Amino acid sequence: MTDSLPQPEFNPAKPNGGNPDVENVNLQYQGLEFHYIYLMLMSFLVWLIIPGIGILYSGLARRKSALALLFQSLAVMGVVCFQWMFWGYSLAYSRTAGPFIGNMDNFGLKNVMSAPSPGSAFLPEIVFCLYQMLFCAVTVQLVIGGSFERGRILPSMIFAFCWATIVYCPIACWTWNANGWLFNLPSLDFAGGGPVHIASGWSALAYALVLGKRLPKGDAIHGKAHNPTLVFIGTVFIWFGWFGFNGGSALNGTMRSMLAAFNTNTAASFGVLGWTLVDYVRTKGHFSVVGACSGAIAGLVGITPAAGFVSPWLAALIGFLTGAICALCGSIDKLLRIDEGMDVFKLHGIGGMVGSFLTGLFAQSWLYDLDGMGPYDGLGAMDGVGVQVGRQLAEIVAISAYSFGVSCVLLYGLKFLPGMHLRVSEEVEMVGLDRDQFLDEQIGDWSLVQMVQGGTSITPAQQSNPPKPSTIMTQHGTRQYSSVLRTQRITTERSSSRIKQRS
């Protein structure tokens, strides 16, 4: 089974696809334009995941540090875009890469333009490069979630560049480059169960481990989302963007891509059911918006490696099981004694491992054949290839160990580098990252964290020019600071009560 139109072929004599001054470089794709147009649309959808994660994270964090997470969603995009154009794409996808990492053949995007891409002959390489860059950006932003509420922004951006280079790019090369060792094992990873989710989950755990627990340690409020509405909106952006994340990973516009998109929605929907069921039983009849959102994300994570390999009902099973299993791991932070409050490890690390394992069980070649370029050999245990489960376990172990170990080494190296302070001071952490790291921007009403001196109300001058966090903490101390918050809250409640009585 082949397309009626001939596939474009890479010509080593024209590594950039040809000279547009003397030839029409579009002719090689004539009649096949819908493939790269489809992938461009999928790229635009994937981009929405980036602000979606920022909104989700800011809703999960406490208000005093929510702005930092919104900012980092854009900052990560800037850093990764530079890294990818500089050498990231070449390290992951150069055609002459080794089994573990690429080379500098495409350094600075050299020759990355109109030639058929290494991922699919239907795509100009510049389209493939953009699509894969957004995968890298999404993954790095997930990792940054391990630093929330106590990680300084500038060091996190330096870490983002380094992590994309020495963790993400090698793992992407292993998994998706035709020369990669996992690609040739082969392990099955349709859209990033390993390079995106397992790697980000374990790396975020490493980030949280190196930074240490938030202050005050063990405070119950650490587990409370400050704004479930933002969590919901962020999840909607992520769910919508995931149609591009999975729906484009066949790298063509065939029926297999349509199946992957359908499976994406199915798994997310059943992930909501799996998580909600566990919550309902555990809380004896109560529901949670944040829990439902977590279930949707768990379902999306679980189906990522399997989206183009399984039928819709198997996608539903994968989504439900991943949502339920991740929900049952609710106490994993306490078990590990690591304060990873964004649940990146629980949702992406554990969810990615579950999804990868289930892919080895349920993958079937007849669904792979939907791209019209088969027939292919059997894939998973349901096709009689039981050894595929072992291959998936090899992928899980290798990516988990590499991402966690290398991330720890990188973070400890940055931590002890002179002048590179990964974590904010205790006084800044108590007041919040937003007051310390940003200019005059804020979320909500900051009057509750401004000091009352001598038991009097805050003057207009004090409101317009509030004291710095260091001034607050050194003059009054943490205990006095907490007392002020209580005083302000009581004053606000009494004022509201008097207004109601008058009306």
Automatic annotation (TrEMBL):
<feature type="region of interest" description="Disordered">
    <location>
        <begin position="457"/>
        <end position="478"/>
    </location>
</feature>
<dbReference type="InterPro" id="IPR018047">
    <property type="entry name" value="Ammonium_transpt_CS"/>
</dbReference>
<dbReference type="GO" id="GO:0005886">
    <property type="term" value="C:plasma membrane"/>
</dbReference>
<keyword id="KW-1133">Transmembrane helix</keyword>
<feature type="transmembrane region" description="Helical">
    <location>
        <begin position="227"/>
        <end position="245"/>
    </location>
</feature>
<keyword id="KW-0812">Transmembrane</keyword>
<feature type="transmembrane region" description="Helical">
    <location>
        <begin position="257"/>
        <end position="278"/>
    </location>
</feature>
<feature type="transmembrane region" description="Helical">
    <location>
        <begin position="344"/>
        <end position="367"/>
    </location>
</feature>
<dbReference type="InterPro" id="IPR001905">
    <property type="entry name" value="Ammonium_transpt"/>
</dbReference>
<protein>
    <recommendedName>
        <fullName>Ammonium transporter</fullName>
    </recommendedName>
</protein>
<dbReference type="GO" id="GO:0008519">
    <property type="term" value="F:ammonium channel activity"/>
</dbReference>
<keyword id="KW-0813">Transport</keyword>
<keyword id="KW-0472">Membrane</keyword>
<feature type="transmembrane region" description="Helical">
    <location>
        <begin position="156"/>
        <end position="177"/>
    </location>
</feature>
<dbReference type="Pfam" id="PF00909">
    <property type="entry name" value="Ammonium_transp"/>
</dbReference>
<feature type="transmembrane region" description="Helical">
    <location>
        <begin position="197"/>
        <end position="215"/>
    </location>
</feature>
<feature type="domain" description="Ammonium transporter AmtB-like">
    <location>
        <begin position="39"/>
        <end position="438"/>
    </location>
</feature>
<comment type="similarity">
    <text>Belongs to the ammonia transporter channel (TC 1.A.11.2) family.</text>
</comment>
<keyword id="KW-0924">Ammonia transport</keyword>
<feature type="transmembrane region" description="Helical">
    <location>
        <begin position="36"/>
        <end position="60"/>
    </location>
</feature>
<feature type="transmembrane region" description="Helical">
    <location>
        <begin position="67"/>
        <end position="87"/>
    </location>
</feature>
<feature type="transmembrane region" description="Helical">
    <location>
        <begin position="121"/>
        <end position="144"/>
    </location>
</feature>
<dbReference type="InterPro" id="IPR029020">
    <property type="entry name" value="Ammonium/urea_transptr"/>
</dbReference>
<dbReference type="InterPro" id="IPR024041">
    <property type="entry name" value="NH4_transpt_AmtB-like_dom"/>
</dbReference>
<feature type="transmembrane region" description="Helical">
    <location>
        <begin position="396"/>
        <end position="414"/>
    </location>
</feature>
<feature type="transmembrane region" description="Helical">
    <location>
        <begin position="313"/>
        <end position="332"/>
    </location>
</feature>
<feature type="transmembrane region" description="Helical">
    <location>
        <begin position="285"/>
        <end position="307"/>
    </location>
</feature>
